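Readers outside the structure-tokenisation community will struggle with the description of the input data as it stands. For illustration, here is how one protein appears when written out as sequence plus structure tokens:
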Amino acid sequence: MESRTLLQFVHGLLRPAAILISWGLFDWLGARGIRRLFAKAESGLEVDGEGRGESSLKRLQTLRGICLQLFRWILAAIAGLTLLGSLGVDVRSILTGLGIAGLAISLAAQNIIRDFLNGTFIFFEDQFAVGDVVKIDGISGVVEMFTLRITRLRTLDGELVTIPNGSIATVLNFTKKWSRARVEVGVDYGTDIPAALAVMERVAKDLTAEMPGKIIEAPAVMEGILAFEASAMTLRVLLKTVPGAQWEVAAAYRLRLKKAFDEAGISISFPQLDVHLRKSPNPALKRMA
């Protein structure tokens, strides 16, 4: 009697253990298969020096994360129900109860449902993908992770920000298809503007020749005098770049422009204040005299 009870006990442990082991094995095999499938698809994409194909690559990487997450959720649900069944729990009654309680659950989980719906729209509308530099509701950073429920941004300071997709209202994507380097410089009011613009245009042409894989359109857009400030006239140049290269291009342009302005004798303005002193008799001193 005792041996039979022991055998039943061992058998009762073996089945759940086998289910858990199978769960882990299928999870490993399935995740590996999904990664290999997407790696093969990504290797077939051609990303040239001008950024063509990069958008498709980012989209594939985003889809890979979504597929992995969905696979693991579905596998966990199947394994969980199978495990409960092996322990003698009536799974059909649980499923029936879930169906009856579906309305109550949906009402209680409105925010979660909204997150998933908005995440689905974000993905299919291709608003952004993993690797894009974006600004979401005032928070700027690189999209490090995207699922149907949440988006994670890595800020410039290294902070990891998690944003529920349901709360995303406005998205500013800095690296979609192409970007633009914008450089503004202030010059003194006595500056020869045509000469300054000529120097800026020459620097832009030289930089375009030096960075053909970064700047994708020439010539640069010279906007002339953008504004009259208190101590300077502001000039601006725009350079079209591959996605994400605008900051590197702008930094390189400023460095070369400073050197070119120095060689041409053009002064970059800075805030200054002229104070004029005027002698006036002090009434108090007059009375004392």
Remarks:
- Residues 214 and 239 are 10 Å apart (CA to CA).
